[in-house]
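May I ask you for just one protein sequence along with its backbone structure tokens in two labelled lines?

_____
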Amino acid sequence: MNEKCDVVLDKMKAMMDYSTQWFKLDRRIFPCKDHRLSAVYSRDKEYLFDMNDSDFFTTTVRGQIVDFILRRKRYSLNNYDDFAFGIDRLKTMQVYCAAYPLHDGDLKTPGSPRYLLYKEWASLRKCLKYQPLDAVKDYFGVKVGLYFAWLGFYTHYLIPASILGLLCFLYGVFTLYTNELSEEICSGANITMCPLCDQRCDYYSLSATCNYSRLTYLFDNNATVFFAIVMSFWTAIYLEMWKRYSATIGHHWDVGDFDVHEEHPREEYLARLKKIKRKNRNPVTLVSEPKVPFWQMKLPYTMFSLSTVLFLISMAVAAVVGVVVYRIATSYFFAKAARHNAEFYSYSFIIVNSSAAVINLIFIFFFNWVSYLAIQNKLAKKFFFLICCLICQVNEKKWQKIC
């Protein structure tokens, strides 16, 4: 019995492999890479590493090494200026406009990793193919590789959910004129409804909301209840499967364990701690570290973080309140305008809800843009300068040293 089950499973697996053969990568272009053990590089233990390997340091690692050196290299002979180092300070002083790693090869240079990824991964003709995650990780780094791994996995799991959602929508289309509730609303020409507001709102016929009730039924019918139940199970299954998939990728790329020695402190922060004499022993790394002063450093940064979070929360609340006020105002306007036009009143619900959704979308894009600028430190420096001026009363000369 077990042998028969194994034969059936093997046949099913072979059929699945054959049906998905077109979507798989061409292993002649992207050959499979064997799992390699890795560790944090140390000059004291070079005998543990294969230094003769031509790919010992990948292109991404080499770029990170250069970036690490540029962020800490001094450019001034003045030893009293503790902040005279780093490419970021030179960009702030407009000595350099920008600093970024160059691509490996050109888009028209066959054989380069950039050309290979451009033709076999970034091309629209390859959008249905599986992603060459190993090649993406080797070229862009582990963080970018993990992001595209998650994006591909999420898109893959959205396929059955989208098919089910399409079937639920088609169910609403085919049963649109057989829905009892919508038909009662559309045939209720002799039923008069009460005004929606106390002043300047007139009575209206129930059939005036016929189009709105039918449009609502397309997205809110009996099948959507089943769809909601399935999506609740889909969410739990997706999270658990992503945990397994991410653990597999982490093991394959050997990035599952985090080493405290790989995360280096920010160089500007170390420069500010250079003159602090009080030391404390870190319980994690067991290394003696400077004790950060509370009134001079902890309190300003804490107030800056707290004020920034409260400001962003207040902006989000203001956006929600603004949309609610907009819906109330436009509903009142359309109710007033539709006093003598019942058909126009039927479309007012659609116009109000659609325009409110567009405004919500604009707010989402705006907040994403603000968060992107904050990550790029374009807004953070300005906010931090204002907070420091209010709390610490630092002058312009000290602020330039902080930057």
Q: What stands out?
A: Confidence is low (pLDDT under 50) at residues 382-403. The chain is about 60% helix and 0% strand. The CA atoms of residues 80 and 307 lie 34 Å apart. Residues 294-337 form the longest helix (44 residues).
